[in-house]
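2024-03-11 09:14:02 INFO worker-7 job=invfold-0412 stage=load source=structure_tokens
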């Protein structure tokens, strides 16, 4: 066996050592320029709460043309891009903001998470948002949840997507659908968030856990 052939298994092992263990694809399909523009136009239109008809009227293009642009099936002319950018009140360069050179990244210093008011807030549940995804088809919301000493059990949370909980401190009996789970520090729970769920029994304070919610954007 040649030295080159003998070295291949070792190279393969080294390549495997570099994998994270995630089942996510390691190779991303590169989007075309047309697709990048379409994603940016749709994102900007929705951020301004504009309907297709409203944007078409403002930019002076047809609904069929806008549909093709947002779906990335045509390459719009510079004049069309200028009209869209003007109607969206952005520069033409902003329509290329989804390019491969720009990826979401959210950094939050310790203790500086954004305090969020949610359904459980009235029950003494405190939510600190630790980051957010800015674009894309999948939304991700990582929360640090603190159950204050005057917190009340609340098991009627229900929303789209899936949720992952990692217990940091305290002890909580957590309900998901028709089952309950005793969560202690280091325990993890991953579930379909469409079923009713939430802390059913608050056993030992202080109680904190990470909650990561992942859902498809509408």
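2024-03-11 09:14:09 INFO worker-7 stage=emit residues=218
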């Amino acid at each position: 066996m040649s030295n080159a052939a003998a070295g291949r298994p070792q190279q393969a092992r080294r390549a495997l050592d570099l994998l994270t263990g995630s089942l996510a694809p390691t190779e991303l399909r590169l989007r075309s320029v047309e697709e990048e523009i379409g994603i940016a136009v749709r994102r900007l239109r929705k951020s301004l709460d504009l309907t297709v008809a409203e944007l078409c009227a403002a930019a002076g293009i047809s609904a069929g043309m806008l549909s093709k642009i947002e779906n990335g099936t045509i390459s719009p002319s510079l004049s069309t891009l200028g009209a869209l950018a003007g109607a969206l009140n952005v520069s033409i360069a902003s329509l290329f903001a989804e390019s491969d050179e720009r990826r979401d990244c959210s950094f939050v210093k310790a203790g500086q998470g954004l305090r969020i008011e949610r359904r459980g807030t009235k029950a003494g549940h405190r939510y600190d948002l630790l980051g957010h995804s800015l674009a894309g088809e999948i939304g991700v919301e990582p929360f640090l949840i603190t159950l204050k000493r005057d917190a009340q059990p609340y098991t009627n949370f229900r929303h789209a997507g899936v949720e992952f909980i990692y217990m940091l401190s305290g002890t909580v009996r957590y309900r998901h659908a028709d089952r309950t789970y005793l969560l202690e520090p280091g325990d993890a729970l991953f579930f379909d968030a469409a079923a009713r769920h939430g802390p059913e029994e608050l056993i030992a304070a202080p109680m904190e856990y990470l909650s990561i919610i992942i859902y498809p954007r509408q």
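2024-03-11 09:14:09 INFO worker-7 stage=report msg="The CA atoms of residues 61 and 80 lie 8 Å apart."
2024-03-11 09:14:10 INFO worker-7 job finished
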